[in-house]
Design a protein that fits this description.
By secondary structure, the chain is mainly alpha-helical. It has three domains: 342 residues, no CATH class; 48 residues; 142 residues, Transcription Regulator spoIIAA (2-Layer Sandwich), CATH 3.30.750. It has 25 helices and six strands. Strand 4, helix 21 and strand 5 form a beta-alpha-beta unit. Helix 5 runs antiparallel to helix 15.
Amino acid sequence: MTMRRAAIPWARWRPKLLEILPTYDRHAFAADVVAGLTVGVVALPLAMAFGIASGVTPQAGIYTAIVGGALVSLLGGSRIQIGGPTGAFVVIVAGIIAAHGLSGLLMVTMMAGVILVFLAVTGLGQAVKFIPRPVVVGFTNGIALLIATTQVNDFFGLGLAEPPSEFFARMRALAAGFPAVSPPALALAVGSLALVLLVPRRFARVPGSMVALVLGTAAVALLDLPVETIGSKFAGIPSGLPAIHLPTFRADLVLPLLPSALTVALLAAVESLLSAVVADSMTGDRHNSSAELMAQGVANLVAPLVGGIPVTGAIARTATNFRSGARSPIAGLVHAATLVLIILLLAPWATDVPLATLAAVLFVVAYNMGEWREIGSIWRLDWADKSVWAITFALTVMADLTVAVEVGMALAALLYIYRVTDTTIVSTLNADEIEDGRAHILQDRHVPAYVTILRIHGPFLFGTTDKLADATADLAGFAPIVILRLRNMTAIDATGLHALEALSERLKKSGRSLILCGARQQPAALLHQTEFIEHVGADNLVPHVQAALARAEQIQADFSGVGAATARDLATASL
């Protein structure tokens, strides 16, 4: 008897581009070309800034944006995702180069690529959902702070040859160097910062970073300002395409570099999938996470061949791609082609690009990626969540990102165990409790056509929140009023709260109201001590399903059953 070989499920990694091409037309192509050109222009100063901040050359950042942009769009599972270098890698890349040199970084990037491909093939990439929100926010806050502090030297023109990599030593060195502030560099940096912030407010489709780059470069060239530039520090950017070189592989560095490679792979997976989710929320599409991780893995395997740094999905550039009218991954390919044309035609002009301007761009990047508003939400949670955030943040700043993620995940696992055990109750029921339970029973109750009932059963903690997203992926089949039963939800954490807030916002945008009912002691306390109640309104958070149905009836009666549009109005009015 012959054994039949199992078919390889290639469809799991099918690129989004292949799904779109059969219905692709010239109108979509025209929109993608405009979007790709816009994102390419936006990506140029960011790519150079990320390259310099990471401790490599500005062209390394550009080559990474070209390779990442092309491969992520060609092979990825998201409709409008833009790949390239991002701020999340700046700190860890700089640390790897300081410890092991550029060859060590290239090895780490390729090792991370192998890990990402492995995650895509095995399906283990779904494990990234088990990173709780306090850990994500903690290391994001820490990375943003570190990026900002690494740019102080260039922003103020202090002239420090090589600021220390350790945080407190760097701060002492910067403080000691402040008497040597360069007025021309500071003026240029402040002017560039103003342009980055103000131009988009006046001209929504004009990238402020590119305006700052052009005007800053022109100021240096025309006024001969005594400031440090790409030309003075890196001898400019070479014209033409990069040469392809296979990085030197050293077997003795595999184990020492493995923790860094795991961290790079983890960050690439988290940021790319988060960016894909953001893209889904804008386009109404649904990304293929396995294809996305496969594309990220391939991109990180190829980028080192041209001297590139780690690649991941770039949330800000993806959002810019959408706002510019992108329809498909073709826009990402045009973005990569735009960067190729820029280095072929305009590379000589890069000599006069001032580092003060790039520092201003990175200040804005650090602020935007920092998720600083999330700190207030986490600080309203219980001591356990606050501790996980604080320890992750502190270790990111004072130790390194690898240690921060490892310790943060260990603390999160302990927190998960604590929450599950803390919400386990063994008790006898008395007559009053039995009677109180009647209000929660759905049997024999009339559920009107204008109501859809959802329920969450069990702990709603990090690692489980995607089940709510899956259940509500298509809101078209939902009634104007959605009741979410929490009677059997035993516990919730910051990640679960964030998922409920996201559901509330999605329902509002679709013209629907959300009512939550039956929350037990721990979830109820957490819902009321955060800003979550502002998302649904106090009247839409009720004790049991009987009250929820009465509230739904009130909503319907108040607006005479006009439909979904009135549900949105009521949801707003009840806040």
